[in-house]
Amino acid sequence: MAPNISGVIIISQANRDTVKVIPLGGLGEIGKNTMVLSCGDDIMLVDAGLGFPSEDMPGVDLVLPDLTYLIENQRQVQGLAITHGHEDHIGGIPNLLKHVTVKNIYGPALALGILESKLREYGLEGVTKLHKVHPRQRVQIGAFNVEFVRCTHSIADSFSLVIRSPIGNIIHTGDFKFDFTPVDGEATDIAALNMAAEEGVLLLMSDSTNTERTGFTPSEKTVWKRLTEVFSNAPGRIIVTTFASNMHRIRQILQAAIQYDRQVAILGRSMLNIADLARELGYMKYPDGLLVGVDEIGSLPPSKVVVLTTGSQGEPLSALSRIAYDSHKYIKIIPGDTVIFSATPIPGNERSVANTINALSIRGANVIYGKDAGVHVSGHACQEEQKLMLNICKPKFFLPIHGEYRMLVKHAEIATQCGVPAENTFVIDNGDVLELTKDSGRLGEPVPAGIVLIDSSRSWEIDETILAERREIVKGGAITLTITTGKDNSPLLLFDYTHKGLIISNDLKADNMASVLEEKVSQLLAKYKKLSKEERRACQVYIREEIKDFLEQKYEIQPLIQVVLHQITESGIKTGKKVLPSSKLKEGSTGGGLGKEETQCSAD
Fold first, then answer.
1. Using CA atoms, how far apart are residues 198 and 189, in angstroms rounded to an integer?
2. Which CATH code fits 464-603?
3. Which of 39, 69, 141, 447 could form a disulfide with 44 if both were Cys (CB 3.0 to 4.6 A apart)?
4. pLDDT value of residue 475
5. How does pLDDT run across 465-516, given as a tens digit for each residue?
6. Angle formed by the axes of helices 222-233 and 247-259, to 10°?
7. Contact, 167 vs 436, CB < 8 A?
8. Class level of CATH domain 19-215+379-461
9. What are the residue boundaries of the structural domains of the chain, listed by start?
């Protein structure tokens, strides 16, 4: 369907008396916000984000939503509307476009600028059309007429959406707060929300991130006073870390540097890219001589230097972490340095941030951090702003979004306080389907909505089984048992084991671990007299499970167990894929040169 940006509502006469609201990410969690709206034969998306791994996901770099539902229904996908440019709202788009055809994407200039760079990185230029929108502009996405309404958030160019459907108006707040003194002068367009409310709002989907916080979120401008206090009192270099996308914060830091006659070095590719893009689009202005290369700051007096860097979440490879642990090529912490954490930890990152702060403090830096330091304010609405949104929109139905489960529950309670009937509020999970008509709302059959785990290259998907094995290794180490048997599985000819990361109890040391394991394996092998392909596999699983239970019950250890089984036959050693003649085996190798081996491997 060709995009319509005229503002005229064009709706076919297909059966469209029901709208399905299907979150694929962003509910019961912070991150990977991906919302599906379905009406008749048309599907539109609101955002397609990524999430970041928790501490129990070793080796995982990114978490993406399961797109099975969209892949199976991609012929119905008419377009995607972007609310703003944060990673948890646009970071999953490259993966989406690899699997699903999305002909048109609509969003603010800044978000699309960031997205264009991502698409180039992934070799996805030209696979979709990007349409820049401006405040109060309407676009047609299938059955849905979507109006982009300005809102305030921690990134410039943010929007709420008024989605006019065949059965009524749906408002998606995006990430928002009511900042009545915004840094860029772009306040939330309450008048546009009021106009939609006068038409009637069937459903409000609202940001729940700060629903446990009372009162109002402070204005971004309150940070300015505290920043200037720190800048005026800092005797040496000032190192500031914040989110690369927090344009308003970066803007104020650069203004403070100008006011106190300091030059700025920006560290981190994402920070540099977004600063350049923001300047190009007019969201930020600063003189050409303000920025210097990181290799130049060594020649400047410490009192004339500001370093603006990524790493506010304690990321191990970030510039700030390398500075904190004294591994950065150009910057070493010296007494007199002031480090400002102008951000709060994302849930799950608290330990990493604390470790970074500790390392900086050990090296003599004065570290300013925490909610009472005054150098950071949230971009999300607190309770009173959430009530204000509810009272402006006066929705018939309410769906809390963007938050962990307890946040969604609390937000639903706030909605009932503001007059939404309790039976009209829905606390749902990813994959649940909220079916709406003009007069009713109910839960339908859920759709697939798991997670996809990505390793370092952002193209390697990690199977849940592998993740479970990693957790087992982290928890209890690993043991590999190498077993060589005769053709009838008896006797045990050769046995060896290796272990990694295993804490061996004193009892197991006293009993001699090698002897204990060999004796136990010999006993287990006696139960298997033949070794067909199916029986070898069953034998390995049997040995693995029995050894696991034995070690846990007798020695209270729970390692990952891997079993490698070799079988000696009359002609040599069988392998699963080929036959190795006896002459190819050297004396002393596995099997002792007695013949061929068949190798089977099994891990818990």
1. 15
2. 3.10.20.580
3. 141
4. 77
5. 777 777 777 778 888 888 887 766 556 678 888 888 887 777 777 778 888 8
6. 40
7. yes
8. alpha beta
9. 19-215+379-461, 222-368, 464-603
